[in-house]
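ERR on first pass: missing label on line 2. Operator R.T. fixed the label and resubmitted. Corrected input:
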Amino acid sequence: MSKDNRALKNETDADSNDEVLQWVTFQLDDETYGINVMQVQEVLRYSEIAPVPGAPNYVLGIINLRGNVVTVIDTRLRFGLQTTEVTDNTRIVIIESEKQVIGILVDSVAEVVYLKTSEIDSAPNVGTDESARFIQGVSNRDDELLILVDLDKMLTDDEWDEISRLG
Amino acid sequence: MNSKHSNSEQAMTEYLDALLLEDEVVEFDNEPVKKLLEQAAPKIQQVTQQESVTLNRDEDLLPLVSVKADDTDTREALAETEAVVETDTQVEPEEEPQPDAMSEYMEDDFQALFFKVAGLTLAVPLKSLGGIHQVGKISPLMGKPKWFKGIMTEREDKLQVVDTARWVMPEKYTEELEESLDYQYLITLNDSPWGLLCEELVTSEPLQPEAIQWRKAGNNKRPWLAGVVRDRMCALLDVNALITLLDNGLGHIQQD
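pass 2 clean. output:
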């Protein structure tokens, strides 16, 4: 293979590795978070969430989604943020993780953004707190930081098992 | 002087006491140090103010003493400061592969930037600075140590912001102190993404190696502390060591 061809092949390989992914962005406090669009089933306006007695504190309760019971997670609590009032912008994002379908309560849903893999950096590797594992990466978006969340890691295996028993 | 300021002053005095009275760091007896601190405190304050006034007239050093200026002046000054710092760090990179190696500073005079955090003055060699940025929006990340305030985006860069007061003196970091903090600038360290928040840029001035009480070679308790600048009674940072600690998520005191 000639030098030029090799260079062309490397360029093509680099391009093919730089996959474009779509992320649904949502707000919590003043921060913008992103979740992989492939995991989002739908976005609902806030509706009454029925509390479940004895449920862990990170579970807000359950909703009835067209006959299916979906557990809603207190995202703010999970992310270590203060609770806040429900507003007109509050949404329940229904997501399908590797484990099951759950809802996450967010302050608002913003948009769908396209990010190349090369535009995503890993988060600083400091801190041993459990919640550090939620962060899949970070990216600059219009001079704002977009924090990409790994939904599968939002709960531990035991916690996924626990909420599966609630539904 | 308001109560917030007195708390900061108190925190500074207590911190310097602890720093300077530590046998491994400084070879002073307790009593003389106490007297020295008592005598030096007002003088340091006075000297700093006098220097600020003098330096404000000095165009070359204006960028580093313009903290109290209005926004436009500050922005211009910061731009100039960044240019100065960048020029400093970029000049002759091949001849100086380790510009912040403390051993180098022990041999020759060097320029240092003095900045204030919670009443505490810290010094850092100018060559070890990556840049000085005005504090913008800082996005916190969950699960990180409390001293890691989050990420500040600056053009394409993602700067990792350290709450300097909390990192340097966590034992003095009260809610009151936290409320009183008014961080204005982020001083980035070398080529790393790490930046230290500071409230005030004091000045920059040349330092001679003999003006510094260098950390003893065997003292690994505070590897980030290169030494103490004697006449200003402030800590001189070892930037490389500091970056290593931050990269590893470690606090300011290491166990022996």
